[in-house]
Amino acid sequence: EQDVADYRKSLAIRVSGFDVLRPVKTFEDCGFSSQLMSAIMKQGYEKPTPIQCQAFPIVLSGIDIIGIAKTGSGKTAAFVIPMIVHIMDQPELEKEEGPIGVICAPTRELAHQIYLESKKFAKPHGIRVSAVYGGMSKLDQFKELKAGCEIVVATPGRLIDMLKMKALTMLRATYLVLDEADRMFDLGFEPQIRSIVGQIRPDRQTLLFSATMPRKVEKLAREILSDPVRVTVGEVGM
Ligand code: ADP
Ligand code: MG
User: Fold this and answer.
1) Distance from C-alpha of 160 to C-alpha of 145, rounded to nearest angstrom
2) What local confidence, expressed as pLDDT, does residue 95 receive?
3) Tell me, what DSSP letter sits at residue 44?
4) Alpha helices of the chain — where are they, by DSSP H?
5) Residue (of 101, 113, 106) closest to 72 by Cα position
6) CA 42/CA 40 separation, integer angstroms
7) What is the pLDDT of residues 119-178, one digit of tens each?
8) pLDDT in the model for residue 94
């Protein structure tokens, strides 16, 4: 296991949690479908970034994760690509409806970026992505959600509005991502996050990503996630 320790060190990865899976070296190591591999190649991604190397095997095995790495380190693909695998693995249950993957981000700009990134990997699989954030007509969003989707990318406030309007149900939601958790906290979204999490089945997989990990965010993470593995890349602030 010394080689695993050395490899983590070379990528500036630190982990804590029980029996953490070894980081991958290539996208091929992850066993992604050929459609997913071609979508990855189409992006020009040659190899996984450090956070992706360690997050992919953990997330693909269904384990909750706290991922901490600075801006620009490829956190979006670290949760979007395994989300596609998660969705494709679900048995088709016709009576169930609503998104399987739910991603919360602090601002509409960020939610929009994640929406675009998700679409690139979702489209080849026929997976539908809806964006739910302010600045767009609520009626249009309501109609789009009613038409159905497998992934929702949302800001917390607007997602709660849509849930209140019964535009969607969380019955099928089993993959929850809280992105830029530190910023969501700074913007005062903690009550909204707690409300959304409370509406999603407890047997979900939960992923929390952040550039920094202040104590209050760590505390929320420990409450919302189940036995998470914590992965840190490089030096990060508290
Ligand atoms: P973060 O969320 O950590 O701030 P992003 O997910 O926004 O980072 O990614 C930053 C940039 O890196 C984006 O332009 C993205 O397309 C690119 N990127 C992500 N993964 C890879 C990869 N494996 N190889 C090369 N570029 C990547
Ligand atoms: Mg990001």
Assistant:
1) 13
2) 61
3) T
4) 2-10, 34-42, 50-60, 75-88, 108-122, 138-147, 156-164, 181-186, 190-198, 215-224
5) 113
6) 5
7) 999 999 999 999 999 998 999 999 999 999 999 999 999 999 999 999 999 999 999 999
8) 58
Distance CA 123, CA 233 (A): 30
- Give the Å distance between the CA of 108 and the centre of ligand 2: 13
Amino acid at 121: F
Nearest CA to ligand 1 atom 22: 45
**What integer pLDDT is reported at residue 237 of this predicted model?**
65
Q: Decide: 40 and 27 in contact? Cβ < 8 Å.
A: yes
- The pLDDT, as a whole number, for residue 171 is 94
Measured in Å, residue 71 CA sits from the centre of ligand 2 at: 6
How far apart CA 98 and CA 201 sit, in angstroms, is: 13
Please indicate whether residue 50, judged by its CB atom, sits closer than 6 Å to ligand 1.
no
Cα of 105 vs centre of ligand 1, distance in Å, is: 16
- The interface predicted TM-score of the complex, written ipTM, equals 0.99
CB–CB of 151/130 below 8 Å?
Answer: yes
Tallying the residues shown for the chain, one arrives at 238
Positions of the chain with pLDDT under 70: 93-95, 237-238
Amino acid at 139: L
